[in-house]
Design a protein that fits this description.
single chain, 218 residues, alpha/beta, Glutaredoxin, 2 domains, five-stranded mixed β-sheet, two-stranded antiparallel sheet, 5 helices, 9 strands, 17% strand, disordered N terminus
Amino acid sequence: MKNFKILMAILMVGLGLLSFTTINQDKNKPQKGNISSAKGYEIGDEATDFKLKNIDGKMVSLNDFKTAKGFIVIFTCNHCPYAKKYEDRIIELDKKYKSQGYPVIAINPNDPSVQPEDSYEKMIERAKQKGFTFPYLVDESQKIFPQYGATKTPHVFLLQKENGKNIVKYIGAIDNNYENPKDVSEYYVQDAVNALIKNEPIKMTKTVAIGCTVKVKK
């Protein structure tokens, strides 16, 4: 009986370890439909430059903006209701901060075969319709948004130039009310850019981006 109890105890421990291993393997395994297995950037990381096609057909990189002090990089798109709610506010951000050295760089990360409204042709139409004042680039290879860690549209990455590098200073939402700009009480991006301009610490460096998931080619 004693040997039987010992055998059962060993068996239970073995099953427990097997279950734990399986759960953790499943948890860490990239699941079908996940936007990316990449971790993305954290505050203080150096952001990669890119060379992506703009709506005017020209290739654009951050290095093209020689006098910029930083960038408001926003992953956004045409179809997403959240992105549409923020379009006017994104235009205002560019108008307000481009002259102060922080232009908006918008990037569409979505694959048009999954969401046809986010095709390159539709991007051109949308930009003209809304009067975009900033580059609207397409991440055709879908290699840039995973590097940044963008998971939503819109998703903001505020960068500052430091010793020739683009350093991540803020990640997250534009503000705290996507529904109505009149009801906004916290202006995350504006406050962060203002802090950089004044050479002051950013009080809130990371928030949760609210929007539609990035559409990845199946």
